[in-house]
Write a structure and sequence with these properties.
It contains 16 helices and 14 strands. The protein has helices at residues 11-19, 29-49, 77-89, 110-122, 133-150, 164-178, 199-207, 228-240, 263-273, 291-296, 310-313, 328-335, 367-377, 379-402, 426-440, 467-485; strands spanning 56-57, 92-93, 100-101, 157-161, 189-193, 214-217, 244-251, 276-281, 305-308, 321-325, 406-407, 415-419, 444-450, 453-459.
Length: 486
Protein backbone atom coordinates (compact mmCIF):
# COMPACT_ATOMS: atom_id res chain seq x y z
CA UNK A 1 0.00 0.00 0.00
CA UNK A 2 1.34 3.42 -0.94
CA UNK A 3 0.37 6.68 0.65
CA UNK A 4 0.73 9.90 -1.23
CA UNK A 5 -0.17 12.18 1.61
CA UNK A 6 -0.81 12.03 5.32
CA UNK A 7 -3.64 14.54 5.28
CA UNK A 8 -6.97 12.82 5.93
CA UNK A 9 -10.24 14.72 5.41
CA UNK A 10 -12.26 13.04 8.14
CA UNK A 11 -12.07 10.46 10.88
CA UNK A 12 -14.02 7.80 8.96
CA UNK A 13 -11.61 7.93 6.07
CA UNK A 14 -8.74 7.73 8.52
CA UNK A 15 -10.27 4.64 10.15
CA UNK A 16 -10.79 3.09 6.74
CA UNK A 17 -7.22 3.72 5.73
CA UNK A 18 -5.87 2.35 9.01
CA UNK A 19 -7.98 -0.79 8.71
CA UNK A 20 -6.16 -1.64 5.49
CA UNK A 21 -2.75 -2.00 7.18
CA UNK A 22 -1.80 -5.57 8.05
CA UNK A 23 0.82 -6.87 10.42
CA UNK A 24 3.16 -7.72 7.57
CA UNK A 25 6.37 -7.40 9.62
CA UNK A 26 5.26 -10.15 12.02
CA UNK A 27 6.38 -13.52 10.67
CA UNK A 28 3.96 -16.41 11.30
CA UNK A 29 5.04 -19.12 13.74
CA UNK A 30 5.55 -21.82 11.11
CA UNK A 31 7.87 -19.56 9.14
CA UNK A 32 9.73 -18.60 12.30
CA UNK A 33 10.27 -22.27 13.06
CA UNK A 34 11.63 -22.83 9.61
CA UNK A 35 13.89 -19.82 9.91
CA UNK A 36 15.28 -21.09 13.20
CA UNK A 37 15.98 -24.45 11.56
CA UNK A 38 17.79 -22.75 8.73
CA UNK A 39 19.77 -20.67 11.22
CA UNK A 40 20.61 -23.74 13.25
CA UNK A 41 22.02 -25.45 10.15
CA UNK A 42 24.02 -22.37 9.28
CA UNK A 43 25.50 -22.20 12.79
CA UNK A 44 26.39 -25.89 12.95
CA UNK A 45 27.93 -25.86 9.48
CA UNK A 46 29.96 -22.84 10.47
CA UNK A 47 31.28 -24.41 13.67
CA UNK A 48 32.03 -27.73 11.96
CA UNK A 49 33.92 -26.04 9.13
CA UNK A 50 36.26 -24.10 11.46
CA UNK A 51 39.07 -26.70 11.56
CA UNK A 52 39.21 -26.80 7.75
CA UNK A 53 39.78 -23.10 7.24
CA UNK A 54 42.80 -20.89 7.57
CA UNK A 55 42.39 -18.47 10.48
CA UNK A 56 43.27 -15.65 8.10
CA UNK A 57 42.23 -15.13 4.50
CA UNK A 58 43.71 -11.98 2.98
CA UNK A 59 40.99 -11.58 0.37
CA UNK A 60 39.78 -8.00 0.58
CA UNK A 61 38.78 -7.60 -3.04
CA UNK A 62 35.27 -6.37 -3.79
CA UNK A 63 33.10 -8.70 -5.84
CA UNK A 64 30.13 -8.44 -8.14
CA UNK A 65 28.36 -10.51 -5.54
CA UNK A 66 28.36 -7.47 -3.24
CA UNK A 67 25.48 -6.02 -5.24
CA UNK A 68 23.53 -8.38 -2.98
CA UNK A 69 24.04 -5.82 -0.19
CA UNK A 70 21.59 -3.44 -1.82
CA UNK A 71 17.88 -3.65 -1.03
CA UNK A 72 15.72 -4.67 -3.93
CA UNK A 73 13.14 -7.40 -3.54
CA UNK A 74 12.39 -9.25 -0.30
CA UNK A 75 14.96 -12.04 -0.04
CA UNK A 76 14.84 -15.55 1.44
CA UNK A 77 17.03 -16.43 4.44
CA UNK A 78 18.90 -19.23 2.60
CA UNK A 79 20.29 -16.85 -0.01
CA UNK A 80 21.19 -14.39 2.68
CA UNK A 81 23.12 -16.99 4.67
CA UNK A 82 24.87 -18.12 1.50
CA UNK A 83 26.11 -14.58 1.06
CA UNK A 84 27.17 -14.44 4.74
CA UNK A 85 29.14 -17.68 4.40
CA UNK A 86 30.74 -16.70 1.12
CA UNK A 87 31.46 -13.01 1.55
CA UNK A 88 31.63 -12.40 5.30
CA UNK A 89 32.53 -15.49 7.33
CA UNK A 90 35.39 -16.62 5.13
CA UNK A 91 37.22 -13.31 4.61
CA UNK A 92 39.83 -11.54 6.71
CA UNK A 93 40.50 -12.76 10.21
CA UNK A 94 38.33 -15.62 11.42
CA UNK A 95 37.94 -14.58 15.04
CA UNK A 96 36.02 -17.77 15.84
CA UNK A 97 38.92 -19.97 14.74
CA UNK A 98 41.11 -21.80 17.24
CA UNK A 99 43.97 -20.96 14.89
CA UNK A 100 43.62 -17.26 15.73
CA UNK A 101 46.68 -16.47 17.83
CA UNK A 102 46.99 -12.84 16.79
CA UNK A 103 46.16 -9.61 18.64
CA UNK A 104 43.93 -10.87 21.48
CA UNK A 105 41.48 -13.58 20.41
CA UNK A 106 38.54 -15.00 22.36
CA UNK A 107 36.61 -17.29 20.06
CA UNK A 108 32.96 -16.38 20.45
CA UNK A 109 31.28 -19.14 22.40
CA UNK A 110 28.00 -20.58 21.04
CA UNK A 111 26.04 -19.94 24.23
CA UNK A 112 26.91 -16.24 23.85
CA UNK A 113 25.10 -16.25 20.51
CA UNK A 114 22.12 -17.93 22.16
CA UNK A 115 22.15 -15.26 24.85
CA UNK A 116 22.02 -12.55 22.19
CA UNK A 117 19.10 -14.29 20.56
CA UNK A 118 17.14 -14.49 23.81
CA UNK A 119 17.96 -10.89 24.69
CA UNK A 120 16.83 -9.67 21.28
CA UNK A 121 13.60 -11.68 21.38
CA UNK A 122 12.47 -10.20 24.68
CA UNK A 123 13.98 -6.80 23.85
CA UNK A 124 14.15 -5.83 27.50
CA UNK A 125 14.92 -2.19 28.20
CA UNK A 126 18.03 -3.06 30.15
CA UNK A 127 19.23 0.47 30.88
CA UNK A 128 16.70 1.28 33.58
CA UNK A 129 15.61 -0.81 36.57
CA UNK A 130 12.09 0.64 36.50
CA UNK A 131 11.62 -0.57 32.92
CA UNK A 132 13.25 -3.95 33.26
CA UNK A 133 13.85 -5.06 36.83
CA UNK A 134 14.66 -8.62 35.73
CA UNK A 135 17.27 -7.69 33.13
CA UNK A 136 18.90 -5.03 35.31
CA UNK A 137 18.97 -7.41 38.29
CA UNK A 138 20.73 -10.00 36.10
CA UNK A 139 23.28 -7.44 34.90
CA UNK A 140 23.84 -6.16 38.41
CA UNK A 141 24.42 -9.70 39.62
CA UNK A 142 27.11 -10.07 36.94
CA UNK A 143 28.73 -6.84 38.09
CA UNK A 144 28.66 -8.16 41.67
CA UNK A 145 30.22 -11.41 40.51
CA UNK A 146 32.95 -9.62 38.55
CA UNK A 147 33.63 -7.23 41.44
CA UNK A 148 34.01 -10.11 43.89
CA UNK A 149 36.28 -11.88 41.40
CA UNK A 150 38.52 -8.82 41.40
CA UNK A 151 38.39 -8.79 45.21
CA UNK A 152 36.19 -5.76 45.80
CA UNK A 153 34.08 -6.03 48.95
CA UNK A 154 31.02 -3.77 49.26
CA UNK A 155 30.07 -0.38 47.86
CA UNK A 156 31.54 -0.88 44.39
CA UNK A 157 29.64 -0.47 41.15
CA UNK A 158 30.22 -1.12 37.49
CA UNK A 159 28.77 -1.41 34.06
CA UNK A 160 28.60 -3.95 31.28
CA UNK A 161 29.98 -2.08 28.29
CA UNK A 162 30.40 -2.90 24.62
CA UNK A 163 34.11 -3.57 25.13
CA UNK A 164 37.34 -2.60 26.83
CA UNK A 165 37.65 0.76 25.14
CA UNK A 166 34.28 1.94 26.44
CA UNK A 167 35.12 0.51 29.86
CA UNK A 168 38.40 2.46 29.91
CA UNK A 169 36.54 5.59 28.82
CA UNK A 170 34.14 5.30 31.75
CA UNK A 171 36.97 4.64 34.21
CA UNK A 172 38.97 7.66 33.06
CA UNK A 173 35.90 9.92 33.22
CA UNK A 174 35.34 8.72 36.78
CA UNK A 175 38.98 9.24 37.73
CA UNK A 176 38.86 12.83 36.47
CA UNK A 177 35.63 13.50 38.34
CA UNK A 178 36.93 11.88 41.52
CA UNK A 179 40.08 13.98 41.49
CA UNK A 180 38.16 17.13 40.50
CA UNK A 181 40.42 18.07 37.63
CA UNK A 182 38.98 21.34 36.31
CA UNK A 183 39.65 22.46 32.73
CA UNK A 184 42.04 25.10 34.06
CA UNK A 185 44.01 22.38 35.86
CA UNK A 186 44.31 20.02 32.92
CA UNK A 187 47.66 21.35 31.65
CA UNK A 188 49.14 20.68 35.11
CA UNK A 189 47.49 17.31 35.66
CA UNK A 190 49.85 14.34 35.29
CA UNK A 191 49.00 10.81 34.12
CA UNK A 192 51.52 7.98 34.54
CA UNK A 193 51.64 5.18 31.97
CA UNK A 194 54.19 2.91 30.33
CA UNK A 195 54.87 2.07 26.69
CA UNK A 196 52.72 -1.00 27.30
CA UNK A 197 49.60 1.08 28.00
CA UNK A 198 46.82 0.22 25.54
CA UNK A 199 46.06 2.95 23.00
CA UNK A 200 42.37 2.94 23.98
CA UNK A 201 43.47 4.64 27.21
CA UNK A 202 45.19 7.44 25.31
CA UNK A 203 41.98 7.78 23.33
CA UNK A 204 39.99 7.81 26.58
CA UNK A 205 42.18 10.61 27.95
CA UNK A 206 41.63 12.61 24.77
CA UNK A 207 37.85 12.10 24.71
CA UNK A 208 37.68 13.04 28.38
CA UNK A 209 39.28 16.40 27.64
CA UNK A 210 42.61 15.37 29.11
CA UNK A 211 44.72 15.54 25.96
CA UNK A 212 46.51 18.60 27.27
CA UNK A 213 47.54 16.94 30.49
CA UNK A 214 51.13 15.84 31.11
CA UNK A 215 51.67 12.23 30.07
CA UNK A 216 54.61 10.56 31.83
CA UNK A 217 55.70 7.37 30.15
CA UNK A 218 57.54 5.56 32.93
CA UNK A 219 60.32 3.15 31.89
CA UNK A 220 59.71 -0.57 32.26
CA UNK A 221 61.95 -3.38 33.52
CA UNK A 222 63.17 -6.41 31.57
CA UNK A 223 59.67 -7.93 31.88
CA UNK A 224 57.98 -4.80 30.47
CA UNK A 225 56.53 -4.04 33.92
CA UNK A 226 56.50 -0.51 35.29
CA UNK A 227 59.67 0.51 37.11
CA UNK A 228 58.46 1.46 40.59
CA UNK A 229 61.45 3.56 41.53
CA UNK A 230 61.13 5.61 38.37
CA UNK A 231 57.40 6.02 39.00
CA UNK A 232 57.91 7.27 42.53
CA UNK A 233 60.74 9.54 41.46
CA UNK A 234 58.60 11.07 38.69
CA UNK A 235 55.65 11.73 41.00
CA UNK A 236 57.89 13.41 43.59
CA UNK A 237 59.55 15.56 40.97
CA UNK A 238 56.21 16.55 39.42
CA UNK A 239 54.86 17.57 42.82
CA UNK A 240 57.97 19.59 43.50
CA UNK A 241 57.48 21.31 40.15
CA UNK A 242 53.96 22.38 41.11
CA UNK A 243 52.19 19.88 38.85
CA UNK A 244 49.12 17.80 39.81
CA UNK A 245 49.81 14.06 39.62
CA UNK A 246 46.37 12.41 39.60
CA UNK A 247 46.28 9.09 37.76
CA UNK A 248 48.39 5.94 37.36
CA UNK A 249 47.43 3.41 34.70
CA UNK A 250 48.60 -0.19 35.16
CA UNK A 251 48.41 -3.28 33.01
CA UNK A 252 47.01 -6.57 34.22
CA UNK A 253 48.19 -8.21 31.06
CA UNK A 254 49.36 -5.77 28.40
CA UNK A 255 48.12 -6.53 24.90
CA UNK A 256 51.56 -6.23 23.41
CA UNK A 257 53.46 -8.73 25.55
CA UNK A 258 51.07 -9.79 28.32
CA UNK A 259 52.99 -7.93 31.03
CA UNK A 260 51.41 -7.63 34.47
CA UNK A 261 52.53 -4.62 36.48
CA UNK A 262 53.24 -5.03 40.23
CA UNK A 263 49.68 -4.00 41.09
CA UNK A 264 49.94 -4.09 44.87
CA UNK A 265 53.02 -1.90 44.91
CA UNK A 266 51.62 0.54 42.37
CA UNK A 267 48.50 0.89 44.52
CA UNK A 268 50.67 1.62 47.55
CA UNK A 269 52.37 4.43 45.63
CA UNK A 270 49.01 5.72 44.39
CA UNK A 271 47.74 5.77 47.95
CA UNK A 272 50.81 7.50 49.34
CA UNK A 273 50.46 10.34 46.85
CA UNK A 274 46.66 10.33 46.65
CA UNK A 275 46.44 9.32 43.00
CA UNK A 276 43.75 7.31 41.23
CA UNK A 277 44.99 3.84 40.25
CA UNK A 278 43.36 2.33 37.17
CA UNK A 279 44.07 -1.26 36.15
CA UNK A 280 43.51 -2.34 32.56
CA UNK A 281 42.64 -6.03 32.79
CA UNK A 282 40.93 -6.23 29.40
CA UNK A 283 43.20 -9.02 28.28
CA UNK A 284 44.40 -10.57 31.54
CA UNK A 285 41.66 -9.91 34.07
CA UNK A 286 39.78 -13.18 33.74
CA UNK A 287 42.90 -15.18 34.55
CA UNK A 288 41.70 -14.37 38.09
CA UNK A 289 39.56 -17.48 37.62
CA UNK A 290 42.78 -19.53 37.83
CA UNK A 291 45.05 -20.06 40.84
CA UNK A 292 48.06 -18.87 38.86
CA UNK A 293 46.21 -15.74 37.73
CA UNK A 294 45.16 -14.91 41.30
CA UNK A 295 48.79 -14.87 42.36
CA UNK A 296 49.95 -13.03 39.26
CA UNK A 297 47.32 -10.28 39.66
CA UNK A 298 47.86 -10.00 43.39
CA UNK A 299 46.72 -6.65 44.76
CA UNK A 300 44.30 -5.85 41.93
CA UNK A 301 41.60 -5.33 44.57
CA UNK A 302 43.41 -2.22 45.78
CA UNK A 303 42.87 -0.36 42.50
CA UNK A 304 40.26 2.39 42.26
CA UNK A 305 39.03 1.06 38.93
CA UNK A 306 39.48 -2.10 36.90
CA UNK A 307 38.32 -3.14 33.47
CA UNK A 308 37.78 -6.64 32.07
CA UNK A 309 36.88 -7.89 28.59
CA UNK A 310 34.57 -10.91 28.60
CA UNK A 311 34.91 -11.04 24.80
CA UNK A 312 38.52 -11.97 25.44
CA UNK A 313 38.97 -13.94 28.67
CA UNK A 314 35.44 -15.36 28.84
CA UNK A 315 35.42 -16.19 25.11
CA UNK A 316 32.19 -14.29 24.40
CA UNK A 317 31.39 -12.88 20.97
CA UNK A 318 32.59 -9.29 20.48
CA UNK A 319 30.61 -6.60 22.24
CA UNK A 320 31.28 -7.29 25.93
CA UNK A 321 33.38 -5.28 28.36
CA UNK A 322 33.16 -4.57 32.09
CA UNK A 323 34.19 -1.54 34.09
CA UNK A 324 34.37 -1.74 37.88
CA UNK A 325 34.70 1.30 40.15
CA UNK A 326 35.56 0.69 43.77
CA UNK A 327 33.42 3.56 45.08
CA UNK A 328 29.93 3.38 43.57
CA UNK A 329 29.19 7.01 44.50
CA UNK A 330 31.94 8.27 42.23
CA UNK A 331 30.54 6.37 39.27
CA UNK A 332 27.05 7.70 40.00
CA UNK A 333 28.33 11.26 40.33
CA UNK A 334 30.03 10.94 36.96
CA UNK A 335 27.18 9.46 34.95
CA UNK A 336 23.77 10.03 36.54
CA UNK A 337 21.65 12.71 34.94
CA UNK A 338 18.00 13.64 35.35
CA UNK A 339 15.54 14.35 32.53
CA UNK A 340 12.00 15.73 32.64
CA UNK A 341 10.44 12.95 30.64
CA UNK A 342 12.11 10.34 32.84
CA UNK A 343 10.35 11.53 36.02
CA UNK A 344 8.50 8.23 36.61
CA UNK A 345 11.78 6.38 36.73
CA UNK A 346 12.69 7.78 40.14
CA UNK A 347 9.91 5.74 41.72
CA UNK A 348 12.09 2.68 41.96
CA UNK A 349 15.60 2.69 43.20
CA UNK A 350 16.19 -0.57 44.99
CA UNK A 351 18.80 -1.45 42.33
CA UNK A 352 21.20 0.81 40.46
CA UNK A 353 20.33 1.41 36.81
CA UNK A 354 23.01 1.05 34.11
CA UNK A 355 21.86 4.37 32.62
CA UNK A 356 23.12 6.10 35.80
CA UNK A 357 26.51 4.44 35.49
CA UNK A 358 27.48 4.88 31.85
CA UNK A 359 26.94 7.19 28.85
CA UNK A 360 24.19 4.88 27.51
CA UNK A 361 20.44 5.16 28.05
CA UNK A 362 18.83 2.63 25.73
CA UNK A 363 21.19 -0.29 25.59
CA UNK A 364 21.51 -3.85 24.42
CA UNK A 365 20.62 -6.34 27.14
CA UNK A 366 24.17 -7.58 26.89
CA UNK A 367 24.15 -9.25 30.27
CA UNK A 368 22.29 -12.25 28.85
CA UNK A 369 25.11 -13.20 26.44
CA UNK A 370 27.53 -13.30 29.38
CA UNK A 371 25.31 -14.85 32.01
CA UNK A 372 23.99 -17.68 29.84
CA UNK A 373 27.35 -19.31 28.98
CA UNK A 374 28.50 -19.09 32.61
CA UNK A 375 25.19 -20.49 33.83
CA UNK A 376 25.09 -23.34 31.32
CA UNK A 377 28.72 -24.43 31.63
CA UNK A 378 29.49 -23.40 35.21
CA UNK A 379 32.65 -21.48 36.11
CA UNK A 380 35.07 -24.39 36.40
CA UNK A 381 35.16 -25.09 32.66
CA UNK A 382 36.16 -21.49 31.99
CA UNK A 383 38.93 -21.72 34.59
CA UNK A 384 40.12 -24.98 32.99
CA UNK A 385 40.21 -23.41 29.54
CA UNK A 386 42.26 -20.50 30.90
CA UNK A 387 44.69 -22.88 32.62
CA UNK A 388 45.09 -24.64 29.28
CA UNK A 389 46.03 -21.32 27.62
CA UNK A 390 48.65 -20.59 30.28
CA UNK A 391 50.20 -24.01 29.77
CA UNK A 392 50.05 -23.78 25.99
CA UNK A 393 51.95 -20.48 26.15
CA UNK A 394 54.67 -22.09 28.27
CA UNK A 395 54.81 -25.05 25.91
CA UNK A 396 55.11 -22.80 22.85
CA UNK A 397 57.76 -20.67 24.52
CA UNK A 398 59.82 -23.73 25.44
CA UNK A 399 59.50 -25.38 22.04
CA UNK A 400 60.45 -22.18 20.22
CA UNK A 401 63.65 -21.96 22.24
CA UNK A 402 64.47 -25.51 21.28
CA UNK A 403 63.92 -24.66 17.63
CA UNK A 404 66.49 -21.90 17.97
CA UNK A 405 64.16 -18.93 18.21
CA UNK A 406 64.94 -16.08 20.54
CA UNK A 407 61.99 -15.61 22.88
CA UNK A 408 60.97 -12.65 25.03
CA UNK A 409 60.95 -13.00 28.78
CA UNK A 410 59.03 -15.96 30.23
CA UNK A 411 55.37 -15.06 29.53
CA UNK A 412 53.51 -13.46 32.45
CA UNK A 413 50.25 -14.81 31.01
CA UNK A 414 49.61 -16.24 27.54
CA UNK A 415 51.35 -13.92 25.05
CA UNK A 416 54.60 -15.34 23.65
CA UNK A 417 57.18 -13.10 21.96
CA UNK A 418 59.70 -14.67 19.62
CA UNK A 419 61.91 -14.06 16.62
CA UNK A 420 64.76 -15.50 14.67
CA UNK A 421 67.83 -13.43 15.39
CA UNK A 422 70.65 -13.87 12.92
CA UNK A 423 73.49 -11.35 13.12
CA UNK A 424 72.09 -9.27 10.30
CA UNK A 425 68.64 -8.44 8.95
CA UNK A 426 66.61 -9.91 11.83
CA UNK A 427 63.75 -7.43 11.46
CA UNK A 428 63.41 -8.08 7.74
CA UNK A 429 63.56 -11.83 8.19
CA UNK A 430 60.86 -11.83 10.86
CA UNK A 431 58.65 -9.54 8.80
CA UNK A 432 58.97 -12.07 6.04
CA UNK A 433 58.06 -14.91 8.40
CA UNK A 434 54.87 -13.20 9.55
CA UNK A 435 53.89 -12.46 5.94
CA UNK A 436 54.52 -16.09 5.04
CA UNK A 437 52.43 -17.28 7.99
CA UNK A 438 49.57 -15.03 6.90
CA UNK A 439 49.72 -16.36 3.37
CA UNK A 440 50.38 -20.03 3.98
CA UNK A 441 49.75 -21.17 7.54
CA UNK A 442 46.39 -22.19 8.93
CA UNK A 443 47.33 -20.54 12.19
CA UNK A 444 47.38 -16.73 12.43
CA UNK A 445 49.81 -14.69 14.54
CA UNK A 446 50.63 -10.98 14.59
CA UNK A 447 53.74 -8.94 15.31
CA UNK A 448 54.90 -5.95 17.32
CA UNK A 449 57.89 -3.64 17.46
CA UNK A 450 59.43 -2.90 20.83
CA UNK A 451 62.39 -0.54 21.07
CA UNK A 452 63.04 -0.91 17.34
CA UNK A 453 63.03 -4.72 17.51
CA UNK A 454 60.48 -6.55 15.38
CA UNK A 455 58.92 -9.43 17.33
CA UNK A 456 56.47 -12.10 16.34
CA UNK A 457 53.81 -12.61 18.95
CA UNK A 458 51.38 -15.44 19.59
CA UNK A 459 48.48 -14.57 21.89
CA UNK A 460 46.85 -17.77 23.07
CA UNK A 461 43.42 -17.08 24.47
CA UNK A 462 40.71 -18.56 22.26
CA UNK A 463 38.83 -21.41 23.94
CA UNK A 464 39.20 -23.25 20.63
CA UNK A 465 43.02 -23.18 20.72
CA UNK A 466 44.55 -26.45 21.85
CA UNK A 467 47.82 -28.36 21.50
CA UNK A 468 46.91 -29.16 17.88
CA UNK A 469 46.92 -25.53 16.72
CA UNK A 470 50.11 -24.69 18.63
CA UNK A 471 51.84 -27.73 17.13
CA UNK A 472 50.68 -26.65 13.70
CA UNK A 473 52.31 -23.26 14.22
CA UNK A 474 55.49 -24.91 15.50
CA UNK A 475 55.64 -27.24 12.51
CA UNK A 476 55.42 -24.25 10.19
CA UNK A 477 58.08 -22.31 12.08
CA UNK A 478 60.41 -25.29 12.18
CA UNK A 479 61.11 -24.97 8.45
CA UNK A 480 62.31 -21.43 9.04
CA UNK A 481 64.47 -22.35 11.99
CA UNK A 482 66.11 -25.06 9.87
CA UNK A 483 66.76 -22.71 6.96
CA UNK A 484 68.41 -20.19 9.25
CA UNK A 485 70.52 -22.68 11.13
CA UNK A 486 71.92 -24.29 7.99
C1 LIG B 1 41.62 -5.31 23.90
C2 LIG B 1 42.18 -4.38 24.89
C3 LIG B 1 41.61 -3.13 25.12
C4 LIG B 1 40.49 -2.58 24.28
O1 LIG B 1 39.35 -3.34 24.42
P1 LIG B 1 38.26 -3.46 23.24
O2 LIG B 1 37.34 -4.47 23.80
O3 LIG B 1 39.01 -3.93 22.02
O4 LIG B 1 37.66 -2.14 23.04
C5 LIG B 1 42.14 -2.35 26.14
N1 LIG B 1 43.17 -2.77 26.88
C6 LIG B 1 43.76 -3.97 26.67
C7 LIG B 1 44.90 -4.37 27.54
C8 LIG B 1 43.29 -4.81 25.67
O5 LIG B 1 43.88 -5.99 25.47
Amino acid sequence: MKMDELAVPNIEQLRHKLSQFTNELETPRSEKEQAIDTLSNYANDFYESLPNHKAYNADYAPSEKDAFLEFSEPTDLESILEYVTDRIDSKGLNAASGGHLGYIPGGGIFEGAMGDFIAAVGNQYAGVFYASPGAVRLENSLIKWAGKLVGYKEGFAGNLTSGGSMANLIAIATARKAKNISSAQVPKAVVYTTRQTHHSLLKALRINGLHECVLRVIPTDAHYRINLEELEKAIKQDKKDGLLPFLIISNAGSTDVGAVDPLRKVSAIAKEFNLWHHVDGAYGGFFLLTDYGKKKLDGIELADSVILDPHKGLFLPYGSGIVLIKDENLLLQTFSQEANYMQDVKLSNSELSPSDLSPELSKHFRGMRMWLPLKIHGLQKFANALDEKLLLARYLNQQLKELGFETGTEPDLSVVLFRLAPDKGANELNKQIVADIHANCRVFISSTTIGGVFWLRAAILSFRTHLKQVDELLAFLKTYAKKENN
